[in-house]
Amino acid sequence: MAELSGGSEAVAVELWPPGEAPPAFQYSPDSVAGADGELDPTEVTFPGCSCRSSSCALPQCPCLRRGHNYSSLGLRVPEQQEQPFSRPVFECNSLCCCGESCQNRLVQRGLQLRLQVFRTPRKGWGVRTLEPVPRGRFVCEYAGEVLGFAEAQRRIQAQSPEEPNYIIAVREHLHDGRVMETFVDPTRIGNVGRFLNHSCEPNLFMVPVRVDSMVPKLALFAAADISAGEELSYDYSGRFHNSPKASREHKPPEEENSLRKPCYCGSRTCASFLPWDSSLFSTSAIPKIK
């Protein structure tokens, strides 16, 4: 079986079917600084904790001052909640005194599940799990080049409508009204996350997780129990549970419809098109449109 990561992941990423492969790109398990050099996700700016126990605990560990987010191999996901997770997540980092087995180190360990990148009938390449995934389990990171706004906009405006767009923009709304933006582009350098397809009823959700600095890792977790062989997906718009009202609240003019890409997720609440924002071609923020 062909392997996609070139041995750079702790667990092999399989390719299917034999003899086929996606267009060439450089595989990187972690995000890297973009060509614009504006942000370096490998820079360490957070101080480390002084905990010397095998696993950090409240209230002693400053890394956990916003709460203990992890349980075993995943998030502590509340039951009966429409948005499964919205709290900030800070992991222990490279300057912390705790050991590598600390429970507050999860996303930084990278891929631990057996995943397969496969050719889908209508959506190009996709990702499926080769083993059962329990709700809340960390699945993979969406890794690529971390860009500043200007470079992200330049790249997306240079694309033709026929080209796939992998750039994602994540906006975090702070309590004081500020909005933090993170732009990640796995087009040239990326990991298995770049092949995840959109769904209007996804089985994954994304959480920004910070380890060494304020530049987050875009971590994807299971929103429900997922069976072996099931395709993995998330909502490119950032919603978790789609609804017909939400997906159709903005009806773009016909000229914009001609640029939008159709959605083939097949869910009962399918919006017919992938998430769209007309500000994509203006000076406003950039959405994830694949």
UniProtKB/TrEMBL annotation:
Residues 113-237 form the SET domain. Keywords: Chromatin regulator, Chromosome, Metal-binding, Methyltransferase, Nucleus, S-adenosyl-L-methionine, Transferase, Zinc. InterPro entries: H3K9_Histone-Lys_N-MTase, Post-SET_dom, Pre-SET_dom, SET_dom, SET_dom_sf. SMART domains: PreSET, SET. SUPFAM superfamilies: SET domain (SSF82199). Residues 259-275 form the Post-SET domain. Pfam families: Pre-SET (PF05033), SET (PF00856). It comes from the Eukaryota. Its main location: nucleus. Residues 47-110 form the Pre-SET domain. Its EC number is 2.1.1.357. The keyword Zinc applies. PANTHER family: HISTONE-LYSINE N-METHYLTRANSFERASE SET-23, HISTONE-LYSINE N-METHYLTRANSFERASE SUV39H. This is Histone-lysine N-methyltransferase SETMAR. It comes from Cyanistes caeruleus. The gene is LOC111934934.
